[in-house]
C-alpha cells in the first residue's frame, strides 16, 4: 500500500526526530536575551506562548476526546488517491471562472 505513494521522504523517521528536537531547542532559547536583564514582564512576554499552547492543546484533547497518538497503520493516505491520479493524468487545462482563479492557476 505504501509503495503505491508517489513520494516518500528521505531519512524518515530520523529526520522527524531531529527536527522535533531542533524546534524544541529553538523554542526554549528564543527568549534567551530575557535572562541577561531579567524582568518578570519580559520573561512573560517571551515565554507566554508555551503555556498557552499547552493549555489549548490539552483542553482540545480533553474536550473532543481525541487519541493521544494514532498508529501508523490506522492513518489513511490512500483515500482519494485514484481520483487525484486521474486528475493529474488528464491533459485538460482548468478554465478559470474569475480573476482570483486566473491568478491562482497562473501561480500554481
UniProtKB/TrEMBL annotation:
Cellular compartments per GO CC? membrane
Per the record, the domain of life is Eukaryota
Q: Which InterPro entries match?
A: AA-permease/SLC12A_dom, APC_YAT
Q: Where in the cell is it found?
A: Membrane
Q: Name one GO molecular function term.
A: amino acid transmembrane transporter activity
Per the record, membrane topology reads: Multi-pass membrane protein
Q: Where in the numbering of this chain does the Amino acid permease/ SLC12A domain appear?
A: 2-68
Give me the segments passing through the membrane: 14-32, 38-59
Give the keywords, sorted. Membrane, Transmembrane, Transmembrane helix
Q: Which PANTHER family match?
A: AMINO ACID PERMEASE, PROLINE-SPECIFIC PERMEASE
Q: What is this protein called?
A: Amino acid permease/ SLC12A domain-containing protein
Q: Which organism is it from?
A: Xylaria arbuscula
Amino acid at each position: 500500500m505504501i509503495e503505491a505513494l508517489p513520494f516518500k521522504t528521505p531519512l524518515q523517521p530520523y529526520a522527524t526526530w531531529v527536527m522535533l528536537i531542533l524546534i524544541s531547542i529553538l523554542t526554549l532559547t528564543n527568549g534567551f536575551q530575557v535572562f541577561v536583564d531579567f524582568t518578570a514582564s519580559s520573561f512573560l512576554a517571551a515565554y507566554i506562548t508555551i503555556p498557552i499552547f499547552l493549555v489549548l492543546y490539552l483542553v482540545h484533547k480533553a474536550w473532543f476526546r481525541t487519541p493521544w497518538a494514532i498508529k501508523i497503520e490506522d492513518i489513511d493516505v490512500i483515500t482519494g488517491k485514484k481520483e487525484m491520479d486521474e486528475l493529474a493524468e488528464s491533459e485538460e487545462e482548468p478554465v478559470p471562472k474569475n480573476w482570483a482563479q486566473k491568478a491562482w492557476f497562473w501561480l500554481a
